[in-house]
């Protein structure tokens, strides 16, 4: 290999009439604007496909004479003018949602950190759902005008490319990305030199340069260590997404979190709110504290208050093992100097990421640190919020699980990115063009019922035909690459039926997603697939992690089944799952199948994309489908039951799946009217679209983040930074005192009294202690006065909130659906002894109970429960 002594970049030579193509290519708006995308396709459709839908690469490879022809083509130039006007109108729009609802001010700027971003197939820095969500988040932030920037890593090899050997076993390859032929811009200083940052690692500093991806109005900044100042080992840090061992993961997450913060600083970006999409970037919280301490001479406790105020965290993983844990020795290796810089002892530092900060053997968890140091934390569906509160309850061990400070903001998808051009045209005609700008408008989606059944079905059938053609082409390439004889390769043109009921299943091949559930009874499945009168076909796609042997075994099982002579024309596994494959599938299938083991699917979004294109969901009631399912919008496998025996669960749910296919889905699809239209099926398509599309999109999701998290966090962050951060200093000092004194608080006595008439005809009343009337139940509406006597020690009644926690008792004698009532201080006695009281009346009959609890109180405290200090009677 011959190395150059000098490197330079050659840009395509565009005629001046076409110069605008360069800026259009460098902004990913073309990813979700079909009209701008069509402009590039018009230049050279074959090269568009060969370049993997990369207009930058395409412009660099296209023949110069073709460019000169286009520069003289009046029709092409007219289209270019229209697209330029369309582009500038979008970019300069002064009336975005954010500007209308939240008039411009000096802020906020939100930085959205993620380990992966799925924006387009020609920028392969994503692996699956987390990246797809991050990409859609940026696109919707752009559409809405939210002042957000993204931060991530630019991987030299990205996630692996998949191929299967002759036995159907997954193999991996890692092609190198050429950043100079991608829609990327290297950030440079005024002298033209690349802007770089450095991050301290054991014994050396590692340098990273910064690339920018323009996503409509939003900028995404990506860090790259694959540059000469670094050793080969350090250059490899940004090689692979989710590659390597635990130590490589620590290195990458240091670069993402700490390096990402330093990159923003180097670029002059002064962000107020940092949103961590999963825990990979949580080290950013430490870096924000360190910079505040250095610039404003704060203690760590003071800097932590400011940092926490401006931190938002989203957790995606519904099982503890799926979160990043690092052993103490690994943390020592990479953070021993950082401990000192933050002014923390080792135990204090590691305690930030431990459920029990006093357990010296517990590993450091990125999710726990993110939860502890964020003002707002959320799961990604209603069910996942419930699962997350249970999973992380031990971070706040004395707090009832329902009050664990993790809320829910359900995921969505960016509709224009996933709707086929054919379906988008249909929406333009019958919903109106505003569906692109405001896909969360329920009334607008009600118009889907105005779409003629004939047009909707014709459009859907056209997409199914294109899916079949695509699957045949990909299968042919797969077979050729495996060295399969030509006679067998030719059979690829005979697989699948463009008119048959088509089921799609594509996602990461983790075992809990149970891709092989539908294969559990092979004979029954064969019977379903091989029916001559009502044929059914299934398309699979997905990757298993390189180290996930059970996941790879599921893929091999599917490949072996699809090779059976009787089903080989009815089942196809499409290799190398990526955004291209995903689009063809969600835009072309009739039924979208999802079979996770409940409740291990945090959200899932592929089914949302399928619905946008007219497919109907068939899924376990997990993730988003648990809250989206209605009787006329799709089919539910089971009713959300929980099982202890997984083998039994698989038997029950696979049989339920077969029953649904045989008794409901297949008959409905093939039930045709006199004009050969499946009108009942089309009605269900429309009902699903009307119910699901306005709710499960990232336009709605980003609005929720903005109004429930970003703006409240921004206001709190600015509040704490004002007056030389005096409020943060005072709150930190108060918390230190509170923690020292909390153990001295004692609940001395709790008593309850009721007021009732002496006799039914007697107007006189008497006050009775509750214990004296147990044998004579209270009546609904009877007042009950509860008094708690507390010894607060050196604290005062202003430092605490005392609450009555009462409600109906369940079968386990626990308070269910509690009512929480604040108690007021009424009398101060000797020393720090104070009485608190309140009055309530029960509105329901039955068995009731109450207790009393004490929480910290301060005017600057946002969520008292988040701090973990609580005392129960």
Explain the overall architecture.
The chain has 873 residues and is an alpha/beta fold. It has four domains: 76 residues, no CATH class; 315 residues, Glycogen Phosphorylase B (Rossmann fold, 3-Layer(aba) Sandwich); 279 residues, Glycogen Phosphorylase B (Rossmann fold), CATH 3.40.50; 130 residues, Coagulation Factor XIII, Chain A, domain 1 (Distorted Sandwich), CATH 2.70.50. Helices cover 40% and strands 19% of the residues. Strands 1, 2, 5, 6, 7, 8, 9, 10, 13 and 14 form a ten-stranded mixed sheet that branches. It has an eight-stranded antiparallel sheet with strand order 22-21-23-26-25-24-27-28, with no helix packed on it. It has a six-stranded parallel sheet with strand order 17-16-15-18-19-20, sandwiched between helices. α11 crosses α12 and α22 runs antiparallel to α26. It is globular.
Number of helices: 31
Q: Are there runs of 5+ residues with pLDDT below 50, and where?
A: 762-766
Tell me about the largest β-sheet. Answer: 10 strands, mixed
- Estimate nothing, just give the exact number of structural domains: 4
Mean pLDDT: 93
Radius of gyration: 30 Å
User: What global shape is seen?
Assistant: globular
Number of DSSP-assigned strands: 28
């Amino acid at each position: 290999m011959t190395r150059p002594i000098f490197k330079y970049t050659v840009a395509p030579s565009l005629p001046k009439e076409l110069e605008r193509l360069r800026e259009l290519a460098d902004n990913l708006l073309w990813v979700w604007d079909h009209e701008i995308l069509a402009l590039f396709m018009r230049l050279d459709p074959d090269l568009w496909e060969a370049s993997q839908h990369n207009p930058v690469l395409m412009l660099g490879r296209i023949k110069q004479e073709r460019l000169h022809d286009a520069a003289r083509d009046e029709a092409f130039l007219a289209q270019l003018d229209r697209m330029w006007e369309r582009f500038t109108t979008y970019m300069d729009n002064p009336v975005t949602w954010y500007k209308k609802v939240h008039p411009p001010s000096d802020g906020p700027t939100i930085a959205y950190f993620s380990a992966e971003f799925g924006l387009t197939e020609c920028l392969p820095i994503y692996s699956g759902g987390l990246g797809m969500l991050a990409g859609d988040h940026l696109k919707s932030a752009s559409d809405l005008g939210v002042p957000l920037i993204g931060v991530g890593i630019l991987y030299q090899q990205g996630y692996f490319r998949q191929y299967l050997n002759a036995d159907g076993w997954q193999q991996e390859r890692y092609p190198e990305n050429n950043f100079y032929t991608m829609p990327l811009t290297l950030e440079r200083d005024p002298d033209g030199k690349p802007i770089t940052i450095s991050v301290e690692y054991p014994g050396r500093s590692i340098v990273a340069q910064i690339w920018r991806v323009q996503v409509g109005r939003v900028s995404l900044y990506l860090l790259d260590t694959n540059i000469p100042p670094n050793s080969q080992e350090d250059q490899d840090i940004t090689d692979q997404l989710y590659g390597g061992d635990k130590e490589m993961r620590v290195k990458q997450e240091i670069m993402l979190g700490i390096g990402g913060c330093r990159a923003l600083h180097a670029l002059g970006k002064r962000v107020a709110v940092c949103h961590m999409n999963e825990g990979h970037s949580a080290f950013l919280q430490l870096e924000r504290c360190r910079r505040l301490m250095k610039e404003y001479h704060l203690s760590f406790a003071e800097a932590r208050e400011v940092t926490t105020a401006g931190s938002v965290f989203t957790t995606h993983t519904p099982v503890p093992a799926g979160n990043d844990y690092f052993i103490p020795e690994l943390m020592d290796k990479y953070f021993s100097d950082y401990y000192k810089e933050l002014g923390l002892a080792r135990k204090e530092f590691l305690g930030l990421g431990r459920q029990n900060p006093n357990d010296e053997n517990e590993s450091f968890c990125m999710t726990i640190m993110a939860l502890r140091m964020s003002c707002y934390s959320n799961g990604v569906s209603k069910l996942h919020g419930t699962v997350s509160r249970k999973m992380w309850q031990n971070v706040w061990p004395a707090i009832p699980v329902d009050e664990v400070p993790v809320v829910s903001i359900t995921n969505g998808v960016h509709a224009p990115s996933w709707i086929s051009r054919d379906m988008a045209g249909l929406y333009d005609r019958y919903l109106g063009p505003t569906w692109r700008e405001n896909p969360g408008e329920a009334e607008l989606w009600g118009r889907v019922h105005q779409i003629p059944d004939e047009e909707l079905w014709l459009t859907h059938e056209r997409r199914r035909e294109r899916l079949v053609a695509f699957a045949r082409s990909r299968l042919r390439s797969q077979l050729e690459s495996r060295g399969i004889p030509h006679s067998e390769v030719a059979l690829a043109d005979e697989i699948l039926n463009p008119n048959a009921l088509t089921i799609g299943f594509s996602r990461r091949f983790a075992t809990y997603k149970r891709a092989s559930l539908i294969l559990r009874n092979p004979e029954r499945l064969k019977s379903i697939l091989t029916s001559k009168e009502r044929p059914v076909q299934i398309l699979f796609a997905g990757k298993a992690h390189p180290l996930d042997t059970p996941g790879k075994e599921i893929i091999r099982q599917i490949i072996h089944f699809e090779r059976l002579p009787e089903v080989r024309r009815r089942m196809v596994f499409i290799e190398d799952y990526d955004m291209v494959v995903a689009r063809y599938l969600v835009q072309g299938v009739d039924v979208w199948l999802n079979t996770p083991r409940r409740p291990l699917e945090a959200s899932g979004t592929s089914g949302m994309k399928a619905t946008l294109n007219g497919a109907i969901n068939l899924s376990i009631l997990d993730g988003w489908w648990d809250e989206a399912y209605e009787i006329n919008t799709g089919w539910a496998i089971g009713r959300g039951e929980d099982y202890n025996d997984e083998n039994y669960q698989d038997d029950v749910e696979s049989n339920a799946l077969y029953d649904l296919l045989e008794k409901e889905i297949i008959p409905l699809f093939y039930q045709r009217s006199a004009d050969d239209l499946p009108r009942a099926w089309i009605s269900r398509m429309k009902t699903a679209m009307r119910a699901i599309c306005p709710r499960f999109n990232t336009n709605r999701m980003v609005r929720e983040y903005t109004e429930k998290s970003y703006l409240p966090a921004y206001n709190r962050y600015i509040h704490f930074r004002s007056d030389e951060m005096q409020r943060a200093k005072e709150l930190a000092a108060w918390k230190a005192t509170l923690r020292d004194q909390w153990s001295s608080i004692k609940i001395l006595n709790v008593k309850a009294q009721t007021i009732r008439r002496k006799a039914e005809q007697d107007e006189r009343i008497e006050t009775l202690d509750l214990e004296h009337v147990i044998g004579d139940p209270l009546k609904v509406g009877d007042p009950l006065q509860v008094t708690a006597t507390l010894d607060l020690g050196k604290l005062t009644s202003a430092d605490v909130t005392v609450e009555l926690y009462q409600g109906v008792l369940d079968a386990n004698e626990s308070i269910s659906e509690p009512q929480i009532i604040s108690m007021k201080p009424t009398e101060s006695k000797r020393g720090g002894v104070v009485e608190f009281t309140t009055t309530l009346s029960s509105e329901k009959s039955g068995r009731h109970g109450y207790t009393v609890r004490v929480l910290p109180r301060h005017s600057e405290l946002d969520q008292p429960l988040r701090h973990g200090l609580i005392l129960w009677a």
